[in-house]
């Protein structure tokens, strides 16, 4: 148990409640801090400085991670030289029943947060470096925009199906640059049939960057399909309006996604010029099969410092792919699911990487022979999703090994790995 004063802060959107307790757990100060007012933050700093003077020990400021609202307080108190501890909300929530009475308010929550740290039941978490934090926000926005993009592409497809269902027989990818240009200028079968052929061919050729002959063939096919669907097309003003709106939104989202990628690349380039190792870490992660640039950046941004994980199982738990444990008395649960306590974005990336490793190429050769064979063996005993979860766990262990050894990934069969392990152990014993 700590012998220093503790300032527990319950963070809300517009204000926070701070409760300062002494080493003997007596409440010695309370303050409501309004986030819009710098004077309130100065009052809190003055109180903490007085507490430091009275007890001859600097107080520890403790708060839980609450969206982005705690970041203002974190940066302010860190800037004035105080030690700030960020708690996991799952842990701060676990102490809510410390009292028998069912009472909950911000002042009591602030006291409970301080007591949780006092009892030394908390895992300390600190905010990552500014560069990592920037990458984390950009990566999360990247996936958010991608989800929005998929949603609007599906909406566009539903409208196109009503206006001209057989449009996909001409342009299989409705959201390609060429298809969007044609739909924007000629939204209905009637518009296509009344269009100037040379102008339509020009639109197709300019946006596809293909030959004039190819554009002519597409134009003829498009004209034929428009004739077939003209009589049953639902070409009302609502569908035409929504079609053009969805096209605008899709283009805007694609443009903004590209801006995010450029911003990520700019941050990494700027960081590499300062002599830090973010770029080398990303390059190491990209040596793992299935891990591309954005996936590598996301893993780095979400995990932060890999050195804080001493064992692979700890990193597995951080990803949230560790199995939950259900045991009571003589009962031991066997149908346990993933804990899913870690970052949702990390699991999303991990799922894509795992899926890429168990796929086969066009020549039917597996992308990752070792994990492909492992997955096939698991499928003989478990459902496919469970087997894929096992592959995800394997990949986390690979990530841990690559970052621990600071060496690129290399393919090894289990037999080769065991042989190398024992040969290395024999060399160590000889010394």
TrEMBL record:
Superkingdom of the organism of origin: Bacteria
Gene Ontology BP term (one): DNA transposition
Domain Transposase IS116/IS110/IS902 C-terminal stretches: 283-361
Pfam families xref list: DEDD_Tnp_IS110, Transposase_20
Transposase IS110-like N-terminal domain ranges (all copies): 7-164
InterPro entries linked to this entry: Transp_IS110-like_N, Transpos_IS110, Transposase_20
Gene Ontology terms, MF aspect: DNA binding; transposase activity
Protein name: Transposase IS116/IS110/IS902 family protein
